[in-house]
Design a protein that fits this description.
The chain is an all-beta fold and 108 residues long. The chain has a single domain, classed as Thrombin, subunit H, CATH 2.40.10.270. The protein is built from no helices and 9 strands. The strands form 2 sheets. Strands 1-4-5-9-7-6 form a 6-stranded antiparallel beta barrel. It has a two-stranded antiparallel sheet with strand order 2-3. A hairpin with a 5-residue loop joins strand 2 and strand 3. The protein is globular. The relative contact order is 0.25.
Length: 108
């Protein structure tokens, strides 16, 4: 499988509370770890669900890569910030391990 796209994987940092316990809040700021990997990004679907007072556009993508991707990471690609939806899948055929992550982007 060829990976023609360069994507940036953003790994969130856990915020600790006043008692040094990790809280569920994740921070994706400028000082969070980032790594650039090669991948293949393919379009998935797009929807405009009806919600009172809001008109969002939900777009999904699929990312194939040879580098592991975690569930709460984000992907920066072509000026968009995409969330990893769920736990990524991985396969180990004879020619090498690869990972597949479903990505979502909410606009509006």
């Amino acid at each position: 499988m060829q990976f023609p796209h360069r994507v940036v994987i953003v790994t969130p940092q856990l915020v600790t509370d006043s008692y040094d316990n990790p809280t569920p809040q994740l921070v994706y700021g400028d000082d969070t770890p980032r790594r650039t990997v090669w991948g293949l990004v393919q379009p998935g679907s797009s929807a405009e669900p009806a919600q009172p007072g809001r008109q969002p556009v939900l777009t999904s993508w699929r990312l194939f890569t040879a580098s592991p991707v975690a569930a709460r990471e984000r992907v920066e690609w072509r000026g968009q910030v995409l969330d990893v939806a769920g736990e990524p899948s991985w396969w180990s055929p004879r020619f090498g391990t690869h990972y597949e992550a479903r990505l979502t982007h909410v606009q509006g």
